Amino acid sequence: MKKKELIEKAYDIAKAQYAALGVDTEEVIKNMSKVAISLHCWQTDDVGGFETPDAELSGGGIQTTGNYPGKAGTIEEMRADLEKVLSLLPGNLRLNLHAIYGDFGGELVDRNQIEVKHFQSWIDWCKKNGLGMDFNASNFSHPKADSGFTLSSKDEETRQFWVEHLKRCREISAEAGKQLGTPCVHNTWIPDGSKDTPIDRNGHRELLKKSLDEAMATDYPKEHMMDAVESKLFGIGAESMTVGSHDFYLGYAISRDKMICLDNGHFHPTEQVGDKISACLQFVDQVLLHVTRPVRWDSDHVVTLNEDVQLIASEIVRNDYLDRVKVGLDFFDASINRIGAYVVGTRAAQKAFMIAMLEPTSSMIKMEEAGQNFERLAMLEELKTKPFGAVWDYYCLQNNVPVGEDYIAEVQAYEKEVLSKR
Ligand code: RNT
Ligand code: ZN
């Protein structure tokens, strides 16, 4: 039997099996277009950016490990890599850009000088590729971040420098959202914190609040840009205190009508971001996610289809929160083929959403409300071995992207033809 026929046949059987549970797989496939995943540009080059030719990630307690050959060194290489990635992914995608990835044309443009013109070619690229764009201020890999404090710095010049950076990033975001006709989510994450026990936690938090208020004083229409703030528990070199903790930013987001960004590598290892979504959404309008895979710490391993990611997706789908939760990815593994990393990680997140949609939620809520907890547990277990893969394969086939493991060969070919020659 031909491969295509096999996929279709398997899908027909799966469709009937899910129908028996009251789940319409055709509807699920249609609804997958509502899941927009923002592809973080920084997996292409280990968060290096284009400010200087050999830029490397430094500071801020985030780091890549590994030096697998073939990383993107120029904007052209990065775009070629992203285009390859896009060709291997089904579904609705966006681009998530960091400010250090501007099109600076070899000129040294400091962070407090960036302008829309440095990102116009990215906006055009997004338009050409049918993508929405999201954006991030870059408060790391810079001498003015070396002290460990940026927006919460007690050095007024340093603080002002980063306030200016953030202002400009928001302006660029608003313009990108305007031009592309879809709101650009601007996320603020800063590394500010202290390696050893600080005395004045409060002082830095007051400064961070002040800086954010100053930088966000300009209101942009929500159709153009939305602000998110990202908390963190700790970083390497900032083990004892993080200024922008979860309590801080949740309070900030609620009081200023901002989005809270939940990165699932930024909490105590037994906390689940999936559990936080419905809690936060009682009080904030929208949530931004950084989906990642923390291994023992905020290691930013490539996302896989694990229980944490599944709970996140299930919570969003069960509660019909797809329009209130924006999904971004945040991982950077320099030890494996970077294109492959994107495909594995993005597909894993997409699979989690599809699995969530294949759940007969309303009948399971009925069980729960009737106190049928054995039945609920049994269903949760049984659903794990339903033929999800057949629906996923069919979805990829319909989207004209490689089905199942077929993308491996495509990534290998790209490595041979392009990456290995860099
Ligand atoms: C760092 C945060 C932040 C970064 C990116 C590069 O711990 O997760 O989101 O990973 O902005
Ligand atoms: Zn993050």
The gyration radius over C-alpha positions equals: 22 Å
What ranges have pLDDT less than 50 throughout 5 or more consecutive residues? none
- CATH domain topology: TIM Barrel
For the sheet with most strands, the description reads: 8 strands, parallel, barrel
CATH superfamily: Divalent-metal-dependent TIM barrel enzymes
Number of strands: 12
Give an account of the 3D structure.
With 422 residues, the protein is of the alpha/beta class. The chain has helices at 3-20, 25-31, 75-87, 120-128, 156-180, 201-215, 246-256, 273-280, 307-318, 338-357, 361-369, 373-383, 388-398, 406-417; strands spanning 36-40, 92-98, 132-136, 184-188, 193-194, 225-230, 241-242, 259-263, 287-291, 293-295, 297-301, 325-329. The strands form 3 sheets. The protein has an 8-stranded parallel beta barrel, surrounded by 5 helices. A two-stranded antiparallel ribbon has the order 5-7. A two-stranded antiparallel sheet has the order 10-11. The longest helix has 25 residues, at 156-180. It has a single domain (35-357), classed as Alpha-Beta Barrel (TIM Barrel). Zinc ion (ZN) binds next to loops.
